[in-house]
Amino acid sequence: MKSCKITVKKITTYPDLIAEYENPIEHTCDMKVNQTFITDGDKKPQGFCDSAWDSVYPFVKELCNGGGNFYDGWMKNPKSAMISCNDGFRPVSFLIEVIE
After folding, report:
1. What is the tens place of the pLDDT at every residue in 13-29?
2. How many Cβ atoms from other residues are within 10 Å of residue 1's Cβ?
3. Residues with Cβ within 8 Å of residue 8, at least 6 apart in sequence
4. How far apart, in whole angstroms, are the C-alpha atoms of residue 6 and residue 60?
5. Would the pTM of this model clear 0.85, i.e. be above it?
6. DSSP for 16-79?
7. CA 30, CA 90: separation in Å to the nearest integer?
8. How far is CA 93 from CA 10, 11, 26, 45, in A?
């Protein structure tokens, strides 16, 4: 099994949606742009958000097991994927790449 590097590429916030729909919360995402995580595909990296892991895990697992080329050529690098977490108020975009 290969390893994958997960890099935080972008963090977006939608204040209008937060104001209209979200209940006030004290703690939100701890991710930082360019932060990286390494995984073997089975274990969530330490410090990685549980909810974000649910979003990226199927792609990480596939890449770590030698797969890729999602959706017939979606990514320029077939051994990578760009996946966002499922937070509709402050989505984080992650680049997942196989470590050769």
Report:
1. 999 999 999 998 888 88
2. 10
3. 31, 32, 33, 34, 35, 36, 92, 93, 94
4. 9
5. yes
6. HHHHHHPPP-S------TT-EEEE-SSSPPTT--HHHHHHHHHHHHHHHTT---TTTT-SSSTT
7. 11
8. 5, 6, 22, 16
Q: Where are the domains of the chain?
A: 3-99
3 state DSSP class of 85: coil
Name the residue among 67, 89, 47, 87 with its Cα closest to residue 6: 47
Handedness of CA 93, 87, 12, 53 (dihedral sign): negative
Locate 58 and state its tokens: 């199927």
Tokens of 37: 């995580």
pLDDT per residue over 44-73, tens digit each?
999 999 999 999 999 999 999 999 999 999
